[in-house]
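Components:
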Amino acid sequence: MTSHHRRHRRPGFGGEPLRFRFDGQDYEGLRGDTLASALLANGVRTVATSAALGRPRGIYASWTEEPNAIVQIEHPFPEPMLQATTVELYDGLVATGLTGRGRLSDRPDPARHDAVHAHCDVLVVGAGPAGLAAARAAAGSGARVILADDRPIAGGSLPDTAETVDGVPGAAWASAVAADLAGRPDVRVLSRTSVFGYYDDNYLVAVERRGEWGGQGRARERVWRIRAGRVVLATGAHERPIAFADNDRPGVMLAGAARAYANRYGVLPGRRAVVFTAGDSAYAAARDLASAGVEIAAIVDVRQAPGARWDGAEILSGHVVTGVGGDGAVSSVSVSDGREIQADLLLVSGGWNPVVHLFGQAGGELRYDEGIGSFVPRSARQALEVAGAARGVFSLSGCLEDGAAAGARAAEAAGFRAPPRHPAPRASDDGASDNGASDNGASDNGAPDADEPVAFWLVPSGDYRSHFVDLQRDVTVADVVRATGAGLRSVEHVKRYTTAGTAHDQGKLSGVLTSAIVAHAIGADIAQLGTTTFRAPYMPVSFATLAGRDRGALHDPVRVTSLHDWHVAHGALFENVGQWKRPWYYPRPGEDMEAAVLRECRAVRQSVGAMDASTLGKIDVQGPDAAEFLDRLYTNMMSTLKVGAIRYGVMCRADGMVFDDGTVIRLADDRFLVTTTTGNAAAVLDWMEEWLQTEWPSLRVYCTSVTEHWATVALAGPGSRDVLAGLAPGPAVDAASFPFMTWRDAEVAGIAARVCRISFSGELAYEINVNAWDGLALWEALHATGAVTPYGTETMHVLRAEKGYPIVGQDTDGTVTPADLGMDWVVSKKKAGFIGKRSFARSDTARPDRRHLVGLLPADPDFLLPEGAHLVESSTLPEPPVPTLGHVTSSYRSAALGRTFALALVSGGRERVGERLYVPLGGEPVPVTVTHHVLYDPEGARRDG
Amino acid sequence: MAERLSPLARFEPVSTDDLRIAEIPFLTQVNLRVDPKSRAAADIGLALGAPLPTEPNTYASADSDVFWLGPDEWLIVGAGARADLEPRLRAAATGAVEAGRVHVGITDVSAQRTALVVGGPKARDLLAHGCALDLHPRTFGPGRCAQTMLARAQVLLAAREGGEFRVFVRSSFAGYLAAWLLDAAVEYLP
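Structure:
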């Protein structure tokens, strides 16, 4: 399709035609176009519909400040809420215009996204004239420099304004400087990279758009996490709109944007234009558009005596635009002198706002500058410089000089010596007055340098219902006045009341305008009102990009033991314990979980089973005061333990509540090995270090984690002694020679091992520890005997519950004392002190109605209670709130008992043994009988085999 | 008796012009804790052939690599199977310990971590995907080490000559980290 608005004379554009589809129509654009420029080239003026009022909206700006032209990408992958002005056109693009809200894809994003950490001495944000000059100056000092710019090509506004530097077109100068920088060893030039967050300690986050879809595993977008010694913000300026009647119509466009479409993209956004300005820069836009072929019907200048002159059009000074005509898009412009001028384009320039968003995020303070009618940086809180238009320096020559100086300052502050300054590049606006005053609108972003504009925001009217302030949120001057009429005085409150500035563009165009309207409405000084707070992200960033590669299998580390591959090969299902994968049970063909666990339980109770217990935390405690240290940590006595012996121990926090439990093995007079629960391995080591380093530095003890040095296999069941004896001919294993709660060094299956006689099932059992490299060999040797059944954590849980052994974190929750668990015996009455001791003297820890660990037997022996279920006193529920007596902490089906059972924490539970309680589960409350928490082999006869 | 098995036994090493990733299995590793100003520390340094490094985040190389982990903690890594490393260190410290007032923690942690070599011209770019530290040779040249995060795994990272890095990772995290490295390396592999 040929375009009636476009003309092709764009230097640097390849001219490769690209097909795309918008709102169901097929069009053609050129490589280098944005979707917006391609639409304008095809004469498409109405692009979207406003969210609240349903008004037609067109293209208002030319880059990230666009408030109107919001589109949904449909193909190749659905993406919601993109600005047509920032979408780079590609072949086959399919998009539709939106009404305020997009649509997320219902299928997974096939693209890859990733993230990189980067460090530099100087980060320059923005590759306009100021940023390029800054980066060049900093790089010349030998500093490591990153230059990040959000556009596809360097130069900032230079391609928009077609100014020249050193006699060459600005865009060409910019690409040459960028290419030279990119070729230096310690300089990184990132294009298409938007710095969107500025956090403390000069930590900045950017997103790089790296290409179209489907590129061979290449990340489509990349997050850069940048730590910079010094930052130069050369972020340019946004042109400021003016609020007048129907200022939201398609065909109303910022003057600088229209100039950009003509110069950067070779696209004419209309045929006949009226210019409405409060400053000089719009004259340069008018001149460029005129020479590109747009008829300029008139310039309406609010100033009585404009500084700029141009004889290409009639200048209506001291006048304003009072409205636009047309059904939908602009077809005429009404002027305060009563005239109605035919035009399809209305260019607006209310002045320029420095882009101070990142500066604000960095905690910088702003001040109002009367000369430019906007806010500029005043004082910074972080190690940064602001250069060029971002601090109100609007001339090209000024930006080049300001940037070079800022770059040199930044490098020096980072500890480098900047080389003598280059002679400043010669900008086309140097001594520009020889063109008369007609051409001094040259600048970064085309903003003016001489004869600054008056601050002009609002065309007075009796009816402000179509004077738009925030086009995306459909907020008008009338809405702002309603907010101030309701008593709101702060721009923050007005923002939240009206939603002005809360859209995807975060008020890039509407922010300062809103402050000005509020000031006008309440008769305050805008300098005092200030702006709303700037927060990250500066521009929209997708969640997929932020998630990066932290998805799927890489979302969270999976920790595995040295036996993991065997478990997988033997059909184990896994339970997540923290980040660990632990074998849960090993179903045989045709078995469900219940059948498999009953079989594994029977194997341990009747013959012999083996479990991978490698995940238990293990801490080596060495030093002359190790025994004293453990006496203080555990509630029970450890110093009396003999070398070669093992003791179970409980640790409490200072509040006397159970924190962790495990075994303590005495390796030597001055050396112990402590085991912890799987989930608390790191917490217990931290706990030990905290006490050693902060409270007891005089204790001569060192603690070292050895959790993963060892593979640990639990061998349990009445047949375990025979299996061990068969593989370890060395030590005598009879009950007298190798008694319960002792350990031996031995060779098991030819592997050096430490064998501990401990039991978490109540059966005769051993824990065999070997170097993790040898874990699989040990495990395979055990199974090669043919006598051993592998069992998982579920069976381990059932077996220990039958014995009433609590699991810290399952049967306890941080409010449970050892006595509550029926383990008074583990709390030493002799020791002078240990962590938690004092709390046991509190009356609260002796309350008779504390929740005790008890057993529960459902009246129906086949009924499995859900864990977490509450217990109540009677079978009929009173009116809520229903007092609860406690809750079920563990519940299983027991092969040994031939029925279901549960453990529970029950108020005054030990006094309730034999009582009937009820579990309300929605229907009829389920009756249960309270029992002692040890349900199997209460005499402990089985542990010796 | 079956062969011993390293955590990354099934990992296929990467070896291209740009990138090398491989496990160095079965290194003897001993964790040492001792007061650096004590005679025991000096005696252990003599036994190792180099004084214990006391500048934070550096390592010394003699017949073993001695990595600074903390003000009173080092990881000593011997090449290959050096079963005598722990007893040798213990013997070196015995005189001072028996003389009193100094204590040591000497613990065999050989299987606690495994080691990976990450080398080649793209090694630094690869690690930058998951490591927040500045690995530029100006700040992290040969002889530097750090305990840090690589992706979501704790590692001990050391810079060696020729732009090569050594990564010590807990054995249980090794599979995750290797998978993460391979995934991150996609753009650097042919």
